[in-house]
Amino acid sequence: MIKKITKFGVIGATLMMLSGCLGMPKDVQPISGFELNRYLGEWYEIARLDHSFERGLSQVSATYSVNDDGSVKVINKGFSAEDNEWSEALGKAKFVNQPDEGYLKVSFFGPFYGSYVIFELDKENYEYAFVSGPDLDYLWLLSRTKDVDQEVIERFVSTAQSLGFKTNELIFVEQ
To answer: Does some domain include residue 17?
Structure first.
């Protein structure tokens, strides 16, 4: 059974409304040459900084597809062992600037958007992505597979640390 708009939805939406930022951390730059059609599909969350809207969730994934209006449909899903149920949130994303730049805004509730900044991407195969939110409190490593090479994890941690993220607080997600 999937419980909709639980940890992801209400708390995440509230956090996004309060932060309401479409900026990005000072030294983070979105990738160029982004191809949305190659990014669509399922991604697994490998690592993240902790937030109440994801706290305690394992088996976290995000699935992206295109809506009829051209925006991006976002489905975030994770399992809460404490509640013994799945949590799911439905959102939408739009490009902030041009569609070949990895800089989008995402909303899970109403007209309020938060930044989704892809600052590193395996452009050859679109196998992993480093993603930031509006500030240094939001950071994710996403992958097409549930496991990634240690080299990718080390590069993610090193890159994120050099940009000022608190990598010592990273949570590595049980998939």
So the answer is: no
Q: Can you read off the two tokens belonging to residue 51?
A: 């937030």
DSSP state of 173: P
**Domain annotation covers residue 168:** yes
Query: Is residue 1 assigned to a domain?
Result: no
Q: CA 62 from chain center: how many Å? A: 7
Instruction: Say if residue 105's pLDDT is above 70.
Output: yes
Find the domain containing 144 and state its range: 36-172
> In this structure, what DSSP letter does residue 167 have?
G
pLDDT tens-digit readout, 53-83: 899 999 999 999 999 999 999 999 999 999 9
The domain total for the chain is: 1
Backbone angles phi, psi at 104, to 5 degrees: -125, 165
Tokens for 118, please give them. 């892809």
Residue 121 burial by Cβ neighbours in a 10 Å radius (0-12, 13-18, 19+): buried
